[in-house]
Each structure stands twice: as structure tokens, then as C-alpha cells.
Design a protein that fits this description.
The protein has two domains: about 260 residues, Aldolase class I (TIM Barrel), CATH 3.20.20; about 70 residues, Arc Repressor Mutant, subunit A, CATH 1.10.10. The chain is about 40% helix and about 20% strand. Bound molecules: iron/sulfur cluster.
Length: about 400
């Protein structure tokens, strides 16, 4: 089974109003020591099981585009030393379009030369009022400029992230965002329904009545609109929230949705490997401190000194997680033969009653070799998933 690596870069120049990710502002001075700590963490885990094959690498955040090409070189060389990074590995970098405003082509060409081959841009919206509400530091011209720079630097695999279901967003403004995103011809689009998360300015504004709460019906209409607009533009919806041109599905995210193994590096990163689900400590300060202390003993795979939660995954949990994640994949669904090969049991013997009930409600399609969500089931997926845990 293939293995992936997620590296969390926990720095942002500004905090967006809706964001609850593990990311921090005004600590960019820590970046050089963080990169050192990250390389130490890669080495610790790599030495526990030397030269495992890595098929995908994902720099997420936070804002990875705050790091310099030299810093990426240091990290990628460390990965190469301790893992067998496959020659055709997918290597993704999340970038803020604002960071590519000046010198974008030069910066991106340097990253491309290092082997980074996929860029994911946080476009979020094409509407100035929505970007302002989100406290994004880019504008729509930055997105177009970043796409141009990425193409000029040799990237042929781009993703745009978009947000729908936001307060004051209308069907028309969402349609404008979709159309402008499609006009930029990315290979991949990820669409996120805005969540109002605890501790964010957005949540405070909604609670104080300064902003309307998201409207579930309107959000569902926006999702339906996206499904039609993107199908018309030649994108295949391969996952509940993700669309791609044929053959351009995100291999790293497929790893998550198939519930295959991925290593986690960096503050707040979550991993699943060696039968363990684990999380790295969230604080960048603690992370650096934990990684810089001299190691007394070798920790069991896949733990580094900065891991502060690790839980052995039971077979029962792995089955439930595998089903829920695979059902997010709208085209492939859960393959009955793969399930049987992985768990030594027939899916229908374990969950046949639940799936047949969901089928009678029109939420699930059961075929000889797979079960998968129907179009109606995509909107009510939680109802299907709840019966599996
Ligand atoms: S750029 Fe991304 S990670 Fe950073 S604050 Fe905004 S949404 Fe969060």
C-alpha cells in the first residue's frame, strides 16, 4: 500500500476571518528554526523504517509559500535522504496568490526545479466584497497573475480552492466565482462550504448578529449549481468536494480518501501509519523545542518526540473510517473486492442491512463490485455515514 507525507507549515502573514487551522501570525522569525526542526522530524521517522517509498508529498498550511526555495530544498533533500521519493511522486505546495504578486515566476520556477509539480492556490472568491469579508490579503488580479506565473514557470497541474455558503454570498456572486475560476483553466478545483468555526472572527460576527448565519438551503443550491457548471466545463466530480480534469485527481487526497497511510510532519499535522492515528503538537514553539532536544531513545514508528497524541486503530474503527472515506469518492465508491482483500470479510455481510436501507431511500447505489453515493446521497452523506459508526 502506498505511503504519503503531509508537511504542515504553520505560518500566515494575516489570519483570515473564517480560519480555524493551526496557523500563526507574527512568528515568521521562527521559520529558519522550524525548518531545522522539520528536517530533524523527517530524519527521526525515516530512520525508524529506512527508505520507505513516498508516492505523494503535500506542503499544506498555513502558508507554505512563505518559505524560500532554499528552505524547500533543505526539506526535500532531507526527505530524499530518508525515504525513496518516487520519481513520479506528486509534490504539492499550497500558495497564497498574494505571495506570488512580485517575482512569482522566478520563485515558482525555483520550486519547479526542486521537483514541486503541483500548486494549490487559495482563490476562495472572485468577488472583492467576499475577499474583504474573509480578510484575504489577495485580490482577483493576484489569482490571475499567480496562475500566469505558475504556467510560465512550467506547472501543468494547478488547483484552485473556492468557498461557498458564506454570509451575504448570493447565487449570482457564486456563479461569477465559478465562471472566473473555470476561465483560468485549472486542472483541479476544491470547493468548501464555509464552516463557522469556534474562535474565529466570523463566528463572533454571526453570534453578535453582525452577519447572517449561513443559509443551508442556499448553500445546497450553490453546491448543485457548481455540480452543473463544472460538469459543463469538462470537470469530473470525483469526490464530494473535488472536481478534476480527467486524470488530474489529487493523488495525495486520494490517499486520505482510500484511508491509506500518510505520515505527518510539522505542528498540528495528523497522520495515519503503522496502525496508529497520531497528531503532532500544535504549538510551533513546543514543536521546535521537542525536536531540538537530544533524543534519549528511539521512539516506535511513526512517532517523533513532537507527537503528543497517538491511538492504535482497531480493526472495527479502520473498517468504519475506510467506508466513510471511500464513500466520499463519488465515481469509485467502496470497491467490494478491495474491501474483502483488505479486511478479509465481505462488506455486505457486515453492513448489508444499512446499505440496502440507504439504497431504498435513493442515497446509495449498490453494484456487483462497489457501493457508492447517488447524487441525492451527496447532500445527505452524513445520514449514510452515521449508520456506519
Ligand atoms: S491563508 Fe489559509 S491557513 Fe492562513 S489564515 Fe488564511 S485560510 Fe487560514
Amino acid at each position: 500500500m502506498s505511503l504519503s507525507a503531509y508537511l504542515h507549515i504553520p505560518f500566515c502573514a494575516f489570519k483570515c476571518s473564517y480560519c480555524a487551522f493551526n496557523t500563526y501570525t507574527h512568528i515568521e522569525h521562527l521559520i529558519p528554526r522550524f525548518v531545522e526542526a522539520l528536517c530533524l522530524e523527517i530524519a527521526v521517522v525515516g530512520n525508524q523504517r529506512p527508505h520507505q517509498c513516498l508516492w505523494t508529498i503535500f506542503f499544506g498550511g498555513g502558508t507554505p509559500s512563505l518559505l524560500s526555495p532554499q528552505q524547500f530544498e533543505q526539506i526535500l533533500e532531507t526527505l530524499d535522504r530518508h525515504f525513496d521519493v518516487q520519481p513520479n511522486a506528486e509534490v504539492t505546495l499550497e500558495a497564497n496568490p498574494a505571495d506570488l504578486r512580485i517575482g512569482g515566476v522566478v520563485y515558482l520556477a525555483a520550486l519547479r526545479a526542486l521537483g514541486i509539480n503541483r500548486i494549490s492556490l487559495g482563490m476562495q472568491s472572485a468577488n472583492a466584497n467576499e475577499l474583504k469579508l474573509f480578510h484575504r490579503r489577495h485580490d482577483n488580479d493576484d489569482v490571475a497573475g499567480a496562475v500566469r506565473s505558475a504556467r510560465a514557470a512550467g506547472f501543468d497541474n494547478l488547483n484552485l480552492d473556492l468557498i461557498y455558503g458564506a454570509p451575504h454570498q448570493t447565487i449570482d456572486s457564486w456563479k461569477n466565482t465559478l465562471e472566473q475560476a473555470v476561465a483560468l483553466q485549472p486542472e483541479h478545483l476544491s470547493l468548501y462550504a464555509l464552516g463557522i468555526e469556534d474562535g474565529t472572527p466570523m463566528k463572533a460576527w454571526v453570534e453578535r448578529g453582525h452577519l447572517p448565519a449561513p443559509d443551508d438551503d442556499l448553500t445546497a443550491d450553490m453546491y448543485e449549481l457548481a455540480t452543473d457548471v463544472l460538469a459543463e466545463a469538462g470537470y469530473i466530480q470525483y469526490e464530494i468536494s473535488n472536481w478534476a480534469k480527467p486524470g488530474r485527481e489529487c493523488r495525495h487526497n486520494l490517499q486520505y480518501w482510500r484511508n491509506w497511510q500518510y505520515l505527518a510532519f510539522g505542528p498540528g499535522a495528523h497522520g495515519f501509519a503503522g496502525g496508529v492515528r497520531y497528531a503532532v503538537t500544535r504549538s510551533p514553539h513546543w514543536y521546535i523545542k521537542a525536536m531540538m532536544q537530544p533524543a534519549s531513545t528511539m521512539l516506535p514508528y511513526p512517532r517523533s518526540p513532537a507527537v503528543d497524541q497517538a491511538v492504535e486503530v482497531t480493526r472495527e474503527d479502520e473498517i468504519a473510517e475506510t467506508l466513510i472515506m471511500n464513500l466520499r469518492l463519488l465515481r469509485e465508491g467502496m470497491s467490494l473486492s478491495e474491501f474483502a482483500a483488505r479486511f478479509g470479510a465481505s462488506l455486505m455481510s457486515l453492513h448489508g442491512d444499512h446499505f440496502r436501507r440507504a439504497e431504498s431511500l435513493g442515497l446509495i447505489e449498490i453494484a456487483p463490485d462497489y457501493v457508492r453515493l447517488t447524487r441525492a446521497g451527496r447532500l445527505l452523506s452524513n445520514q449514510v455515514f452515521q449508520g456506519l459508526v
